[in-house]
Amino acid sequence: MMSPLGFPFFQHYPNMRSITVKPYMWSNGVRKRVQVTLKAENDNGEVVEKTVWRKSDEEAPVHFNDSLNAISANLTHMADATHMQMVIREAKHHGIDSLMMIHDSFGTTPADMPKLFDIVRDMFIELYTHYDPLQRVLEETEWVNEGIDEYVPSLTKEGTPRLRKDGSPIMKRNPDFIRLPQLPNKGDLDLEEIANSWFCFI
Fold first, then answer.
1. Strand partners, 47
2. Is the full-model pTM beyond 0.70?
3. Where are the chain's structural domains?
């Protein structure tokens, strides 16, 4: 996924349960051999182990719950980082080159604070006038169903399609098809009112 400014954004929570490190030391120096055992759950809930002598380049399965719990916060962090980049760029355009940022708080020298005060709000309005986070996520995830039918024929034990009396196949939901949720309706927030906010970031 790309941020509104074109920076790549992704999260990676591998399904690793434990790492066991066993160093072996020789008397002729500090050479060390490390054995690492990776444990991960597969789709059937079975624990799979793999022992390697160094960190493997192979990716462990993604941890579903960790990814699910983190996505909202990570999307917010990405949007905040985009806003900060926009503020820095606009501040530079206005000759402000002394900036201090802590997460989503902005600071500069006293003489430049009034202008930065306006820039922070103007960039926030500009960002969310053109960027809908939920719409972007939906657009970026629609590809997961490419070439996958939502419904597939129900099969007998022999692998043949089950048929209705009229000869048409009985269909069932395809477990490989991911049903994406509908976007919620938007409220009546007027983004332009943010320009009048005293407590927007700074």
1. 41
2. no
3. 19-52, 64-196
